[in-house]
Amino acid sequence: MNDLSPRQPFRPLLWADFVIDLQEYLADFPDDVCLVGGAVRDLLLNRPSDDLDLITPGDPVHLARKIANHFKGDCFVMDAERGVARVLLSHSEGTLVIDVARMRGATLWDDLVDRDFTVNAIAVPLKGDLNTIIDPLNGEGDIRAKLLRRCSEVSFQNDPLRMLRAVRQSVELNLRIEAATLADLRARVNTLTLVSPERLRDEWYKLLKLPRPVAALRVADALGIIATLLPEVAHLRQLIHPPSTRWEYTLALIDHISAIITSISYHRTDNTAASFALGTMVIQLDRYRQSLVTHLEKQWPNNRSHRALIMLTALLHVVGEEDLSHTLSLADQRIESLKLSNTERTYVLQLIRHQNRLIQVDENLPLSIYRYWRDTGEAGIDVALLSLAHALAGADSGLSQDDWIKLLEKVGGVLDAWFIKHHTQVSPPVLVDGTELVQIFHLKPGPIIGELLEAIREAQVIGHINTADDALNFARAYLRS
Given this model, what pLDDT does residue 240 score? Predict the structure, then answer.
């Protein structure tokens, strides 16, 4: 303990070429600079990493700007008072994120012991040997033992959010939470309510973005985190008998939508879609794969994951039992408590409101498909995917292959309209607008205009109207009827 001597790790640290270049560039920099946190940990775990964390006892904003200027990136001051800046560097495989912060406390020891977990408290001197580590808390030993251990007895007291982070990182990194850390977490779980909503929101997004978020949710539930932070979700146990049925259904839903998204993504492997259900889905939806991936990879404010937003929707979708208005009200309260943006709020409520909308669709009737997209908008893509997950989650004794294929055909029909035939089945071209209708037919502005425009669109979808003259003749007949 307290030993800050660099030493050789148990496996070589194979740094990317950029880190070597960065070391050479900062050779004459007057202050010490250390690599810390996830990048060091991930190398020791033999995991890929796209982020770097640097600490320095000097001015971190000055250092960040030097790095950004030299490597032609962008620098953003995240917290001027605490001394935190971010550098974004574009490269062939994406964007490298470099966070630069002022060293916590007066010494490197003070900084490392003030971190969350020992596996994240390993430093590499950037101005020294890049294949040595400074590891006074024996994070390397915990990595080898597959343990997640808090850095100090006041770790959770200093920042209760670390308890939720412990759940996520234990699952993400395949580590077991060490006994004293686990006991401390259980004892302090109620202090999670002291964390700001914004920080809780961002940590929930990270947890729900995991490849298998259900594993983390089960751990969070067992430790009392769900009851503390999502009491309306924890209440699912008391809704029907047996008590766990609705909660288990929710977890099954999240597990299946996660598997569906992974099967669509470019991360799928031969084993990802090995089941009949996922295998046939991959075949049925393959022509829309690129479009679906683009949709699923979109980002919400501050780079929040769309995948995680779908998982959050699945987590909240049954909180009001069978009463949709109650479900929407409770979900809206939770959305407000997590400080989601207005666009995220609208999207989640849209998904919940139309969770059963696909059942009403006849994929052989263009008007039925048009009305589906009119009611759901872009959220209809995720409504369709969630419908597949609902079917799998609700199959108590196995899903009939015929029923699954029929559902896939229905999903394929609505997606074909959105991605392939959008111009004719979802959003036909405007042939006449409301102003023209008012002028030509001497109408007063009001609901009749919207009603008439919608009737014209529906007639276009089924092929009864193709030109502006057709639209005006239709409107004339409609007004006479």
Answer: 47
